[in-house]
Design goal:
Blueprint (H helix, E strand, L loop, with lengths): L4 H12 L7 E5 L5 E4 L17 E3 L10 H11 L4 H7 L5 H11 L3 H22 L5
Antiparallel strand pairs: 1-2, 1-3
Amino acid sequence: MAIDYSNLEMAFEFVSSGYECEHLAYLDRLSGEIYYDSDESEDVMPDDLFTNDKYVEIPSTKEFGLGKPLAIEFAQNYLSSDLDRVYTFFRSRGAYANFKALLEKRDLLETWYTFEQAALKKAILEWCDDNEISI
């Protein structure tokens, strides 16, 4: 069964939108149905969710390591003259706010969002391959 990529991406965003374990989602690999679990969710979880291998928990995008390492990679490619500054940002609180302010100043914010989205898509597709999920 092939899964619609946009639905899967939405599930990854849902899981990543809250605190750790605040929002959960599970994919039924056979039907392609996605079950959402949170305090606000009205989805009814399948009885065999934790006993049947056909379900796989959707991880948070944080588990892909796309935070600081991705920002550093972007800086190496697009902000080489500001690389030391970016490293300094990520040694303290407010790193992303400072990073994005620099991107805005350098007119690279949209380039960053495109770069970040491409990395996320690559990570999701690799996760699908690892879990034998067809897109």
